Amino acid sequence: MKRVPDLIDVWFDSGAMPYAQWHFPFENKDEFAKAFPADFIAEGVDQTRGWFYTLHALGVLLFDSVAYKTVVSNGLVLDKNGNKMSKRLGNVVDPFDTINKYGADATRWYLITNASPWDSLKFDVSGIQEVQRKFFGTLYNTYQFFALYANVDGFAFKENYIPVNERPEIDQWILSSLNTLIKAVQQNMDEYEPTQAGRAIEDFVDAHLSNWYVRLCRRRFWKGEYEQDKISAYQTLYECLETISLLIAPIAPFFAEWLFGNLNEVSNRYTTESVHHVLFPKTNETVINTDLENRMQLAQDASSLILSLRKKVNIKVRQPLQKAMIPALDESMVKSIKDAEEIIKAETNIKEIEILSAQNDFIRKKAKANFKTLGKKLGANMKWAADEISKFDNILIGKLDNEDICLTTPKGEQLTITKEDVEIVTDEIPGFEVASKGSLTVALDINITDNLKKEGNAREFVNKIQNIRKDQNFEIADRIIVEVLQNEMLQTSLNEYKAYICGEILADSLVFKPNLTEGIDIEVNDAILKVNVLKK
Question: What predicted TM-score, i.e. pTM, was given to this entire model?
Fold first, then answer.
């Protein structure tokens, strides 16, 4: 071994890598021409004056060219308080311990989605735990739900593919959202934005696939005959899970392999042995229906507002309520609300939705100037602008969510008012709770009549019996007999809704007895009820 005498600088030497690796210009001229300049390089931000600079300096000197087309300058990994990791400070996190404890996929997903690669990352293991629970846990549970019922029905994707336009609208929506996701992930990856790609996948799995599609379609999987509607549900959910396995593969290679393998082992839709041998998904533009996605987003937003109001006043979702009122800004919104009405009612357990005009007198909104944001840019015009903002009607207030509003002062000056410049308040309405999100407002009737109370008792009873079925490890298709100790407070409710209750819990009979020697006590809306559940 001997020292090389002609060494200018170690970073100058590494900057010569594009040429030295091909022994250019002495050989491999064609190979060098194909590889220069590089499409992409990445290194730490501390290489700005080292490798990054030297590569370009040599490229310009030798070829009057850049040395690379795209660069990611990686930020630093800091401790959770934003301090640089140091053995002296005792805040160093051992990456191998972290990976052994939480897994490589959860660690990778956290690092990619928590901050953009070029930003410094405040590393906190609680963030990895959150990724495990919220993303991988949700995706795992969604797969387990699918596998449970697919195994019962023997679904293996052997039936002919049902055209998307022949499937129920909920299937069309999730497949449209899936293909919109594919487009977003592909675009973000092409633009070297893996953080945004990962977050888009997270949002789809949580907000669309698990907490909306699966919940709304749950009954389709466990009730009814194995016919087109059920097959359509299976094919749709399978396609979503399969596509997700392909989309997450670059970031979570091991979980993607597990998910893809479990699916493909049964369906054999791919002949390849690994998810990493399958081409990345491509968007099917014919499946994307933007109007349908927007309408479903309205349904999700309205449902979220109604459920938040229920939580605010401590009314369970199992307790039916009579109605919600939604003002519509225009005819297009009226149509969207009507089209989404049944979903909103089912999701929030309300009987009716009343659509109000934007200028209704029932829900009165008021606009107030936000002096914190307006004071800096309006100066002497502040008082005048505050008076004008206080005159905004419901239509103008609704428009603020999507567009700015221009005001003309008495002196002819143009002032631009954004939604951040305005605070919106709503007058209280006796017997109703009101909430808003952007241009969408809902008013929920929180009065509970005797009839609504009876139905709420029945729904609560169903929930308790379903829990007993689960605790006693009954199969999902097992029929049961339910015996109930006579109870003056609840018997009227349960008798009135007996057909509904038996259908939900798969009971062949629901009988009330004056004496019950066996059974357990359950609580139904603050009343104690003794029941005995028997497998038939």
Answer: 0.77
